[in-house]
User: Fold these one by one.
Assistant:
Number 1:
Amino acid sequence: MLRLNNARKIFIKIWMADFEGLKKNQLQARFQHLTRSQKRLPTPEIKAPSDQEVYDQANALLDGLKNKEAFQAFTDFIKQFPNSALLPDAKYALANAQFNLKNYKATIGTYQKLLDQHPDFAKNPEALLGLANAQIQLALIPEAKKSLKDLIKKYPKSDVIQNAQKRLKVLESIKP
């Protein structure tokens, strides 16, 4: 009986070794098949969003009054797309987000850069009015008067000219 048990143990060990070897060979064959078939699959392309898509997302944040998020999104846009045709629009929107966050000093800087770097930008009349508004918030009355006078002189047919004239009239009436 002892010999039978030993024979069984030997048979089982041989059978297990064969099974493990078979299993190992089958796994290797399956792995090779899978890796070959993966090579045949096209690699999906991950397309980076365009400047228009990124700008639209940032603008949606500003429209939704999510000013902190819009501020960050436009700041990122300006860094990511320094040569974009939308750069002046992004700077203008950034200044609006800064104004909404009551960061008037930064607003002034952003509007000033916009006006200096993009003198032909279509929204420069609005930018000058925004600049004057930020200057008023910081009680920089002489600077605000100058910005409003520049706006009236440079853009006499602008849509914001009446607002500029009214604000200038109010500022002129204030006695220092």
Number 2:
Amino acid sequence: MRFFPLALVVALAMSACLNIAPRDLQQSANSTNGNNSNNGNTGQSNSTTGNSGNTGTVAVCAPLPAPTGNTIVVEASQAADLPSIAAAAASGSTILLKDGTYPLSGSVILGTANVTLRSESGDRSKVILDGAYAVDELVGIQASGVTVADITIQRAYTHPIHVQPIGGNVTGVRIHNVHVIDPRQQAIKINPNGARTLFVDYGEIRCSKLELTAAGRPNVDHSSTPCYTGGVDAHWARGWSIHDNVIEGFWCPGGVGALAEAGVHFWNGGRDTQIFRNQFKNNGKGIMLGMGETPTSRTYADNPCAGLLQMGHYGGFVANNFLVTTDSNVYFDSGIALEQVCNFQVLHNTVASVSTPFSGIEYRFSRTSGVIANNLVTHNIRERDSATATLASNLEDAAMTLFAAPGADDFHLLPTASSAIDQGSAAYIGAVPADFDSEARDSQPDIGADEYRP
């Protein structure tokens, strides 16, 4: 394997997961008009950055196809009209934003099915929706099949993107190549309706960057908790895929007493979430499924996990993620945390930190059960409060000397990383056949997100 800093690369799609039916791994990247009608399927993928995993299949981080059907072209000078333009867009329409900064004075609500909001150029850095901390949510998604792509969304008073059903269940939301900067609360919020009778399921967040910068950190909301911010925060949601993203900088000064929410958090009875090939950098928490011992949670007619109730999360597939902290100012609580989660798989992740976390990976509470295998952590894997899990071929207390260049965010394995190379269990190759960089794992896989090859 060639060594290079962690980048937005895509790999062979992974589908096997306990109690999760494999998805059609090709559909989402085969969209013909940039609108999304595939219930959030992940798309089989190859690298778009030129690394050696290219297999000729469709790349999920490649540019979206040109829009077809009705297109509505908007100039930056029309920023004040963008909320009304979005409200009037018919189903199947694409709103194309010309390059420029759009100072928003109201929320852009996408309440009609199969509407796409995207930049005309495809360059997310050139189209900026700016709330200046004066607008609660900048983009609201309230209908199925909505796509938001190729734009930057910054400085929301609450959530830059808020997905919530109004008139019916919402499925097939796609957020692609979006840069979210400096939210006051969570970058992407996913909620049921107020009565908790309508839900947002089978969505996808891919090829995006969510970050809290030093400039935005003083503006974080401290009214609910000491650091009420985070990356993706989803309640009562089923079947989402979070992949090929960078999530960075969600922390506040003050240590454990000012802990931010996780980079990705699905809870309140969420189900079948797939979180893979992401980079988490300098966050207080990385990935969290569930929260608390007796959560208020969604129930399902098919009674997953033998009918267990009050679950933080059902199922869950967490694989091939890099979760790293290289800034000693960050209090790093945990890389991956599982609380009242049944039938999960946590496979082939790398969790590395320059400071000592509470847990590299932790699993907690008596109804928690699943598999934690082939993970590389520089610190510990912690069982808490009578949780159970199958642990196999994890490497704990790994030295930073195993990695190519931690100071340059390169956590690929060195050829001298003998404690990780060829030390993994082969039992999980079917679930994770390739590594973060789309290089196939061999019959004796390496531990962690990277499969070293000379």
Number 3:
Amino acid sequence: MFENKEKNKEIVNKLENLGKYVFAAFGLVFMIVGVWIFNSEQSRFNEVKENWIPTQAVISNIETYKKGDGKTGRNILVTYTTEDGTEIKDARLNVSTPSMQMGRTIEIYYNPANPEDITALEFRLHFIFLFVFSGLGLLFFIIGIVSIVKSSPDAQRQEAQNREKMMRNPSTEQLQEDIYFLTLALQEGNGTEINIHRKQILNPIGTPEWDVFIGGQKTHLAKKKLFSILPEFSITEIQTGKIKYIVRKKIWPLIKSRFSLTRWDGNVYEFVTKKNWRSYFSCRVGQDLYEIFWHKWRKYSIYKNNVQIALWDKEKIALGVQNKYKLIADAGSDYELLVSFCLIFDYRVPMRKKRSIKNIDYGQAIEGARPFDPTWRPKRVE
């Protein structure tokens, strides 16, 4: 089984490396296409500007028609006079912009060899190709090249050396965090400690599972659904075998991710990204509003109706992909809901695929929307 796992890992690594080169090549092609289109259109623009004759034209008619996708298109017809005094009526313009309205006077250029051959230079499509195609292409190319460089043997060797150094010399910050969370855990009778351990199952896909320990006892098991279009995982109570929550990622919106949380009684709640850049999230459960704030490094705070009820911390140094979380909550809280929030973040901010045993997660370097409160202590919920 372990031999098959190593072979699968080797195949995955080769596919990943191939994907990085394809990504960079795709970006390079996009850049080249964007620049080529820009140069072609710019050449035509210069030719029109130098050789065609400018004149003022009045939009005399606007024809509408249905496109294949059901949207409405427009043909702009203009009337103008050439240099020799010839009036040309209802000549069709080759462009249409929202600013072109009936009766408006616009500047056009006509071909002296064929006065009915006209264009308007106020609509410069080639700049769109330059910024969209070339801009996206440059972004993809840079991402691909950076990924290739980071996966080089020298870069991996340096990263492994840095991890070894961190393992031998734990930072003062890490020691302070350990002492702080130990102090919280010792608030007997007031708070509850929840530990969440992610483990990777030995199958070709590497489906993750999470062991959940409440008060030192293993009480729940969370599993990611093996075959699903969008990520989905369930939280099952071990003693009863009952699924307490099913968490599903929503397809829209793409940037501000949303998740639905279906509770065992059929109630459905929505986890919403409020501010990506300020690391602020919320979930309304009945009349209660839960807010989650991601703080500097790996700390998270949970507020219920503007009162803090819990916090969790992600372990800085992990073995492989075995992420570990320590959550401290008010005694009597909805522990399964809080675990659901933590698992969403374990998916939403996934650990990078590692090729070494020891891995370090530094978290984020800036404070979120709400400052971390070091004075908070857990309490008992009546």
